[in-house]
Amino acid sequence: PPRSTLFPYTTLFRSAVELVNAALYLRRPLLVTGKPGIGKTSLIYAVANELDLGEVLRWSITTRTTLKNGLYDYDAIGRLQETQRIFKEVELSGKKAVNIDEAIDIGQFLQLGPLGTALLPSKRPRVLLIDEIDKSDINLPNDLLNLFEEGSFEIPELTRISKKVPLVEVRSYDGMDVPIKKGEVSCQNFPLIILTNNGDRDFPPAFLRRCLRLTMPYEQDATALKEIVKAHLGDDLFTQDGEKIKKLIRDFIDRRS
Question: For residues 50 and 97, what is the distance between their CA atoms, to the nearest angstrom?
Fold first, then answer.
């Protein structure tokens, strides 16, 4: 879609473009603050579309979310059950003992999360939305700092067996089988990371210094609201019911005020 339909405010569009470009060049996350429903989430999808960066990886935050949830998930119980099954087969068959690390494909019990997938090596930056970071546990913003600095992380379950099994294929968040060498994941191009925030809490100073910040304006006037309605519903609706929609917009502004 034309850029004018994505960003009704020219000043907001210019500011957003500058900050998105800065985030890409400086390898820094962009913290977008604004009231619910103002278009924070829409911004990242518009950017991904404009720059042709592919599917947006979305990580929705709750009070129970930890850094590991975003990086990867390991089904330890599933692997234990598979280990017991193999040992039982070996015992019944009378075979010699097997090397369990080589006998079991540990990759089938691992799946990368949205954050872990965003840090996979790729020719173009992946796009990651960390949605509603203000809902997180107090420690999560600080836990993210080192990851933002390094652009890499380690999967201990793979590192421990890296001498015997140096290369393991695991499933990414978007359903692809990807090779992980010696348990290390390191980005080739730092992802475009946009964190949304409703402005309901304060963040640690170190976290704020690391992020670039964009505040979405809330007080749209009638002209801006008209452009938003057009972007969502199309110009044809205004041709048919233009006066009725203008009245609804005026009523909305009066009630909000």
Answer: 56
Residue 186 CA: distances (Å) to CA of 35, 74, 150: 34, 19, 8
pLDDT at 127 over 70: yes
Residue pointed to by tokens 């997180």? 136
Residue 14 burial (CB count, 10 A): 11
- Three-class DSSP category at 182: coil
Q: Tell me the pLDDT tens digit for each residue of 68-103.
A: 999 999 998 988 888 888 778 776 776 666 666 666
15 vs 62, 144, 192, 220, CA distance in Å? 29, 25, 16, 16
Handedness of CA 222, 36, 33, 205 (dihedral sign): positive
Nearest CA-CA partner of 47 in 71, 77, 66, 24: 24
Which of 18-27, 44-53, 80-89, 112-121 is least confident?
Answer: 80-89
Residue type at 177? D
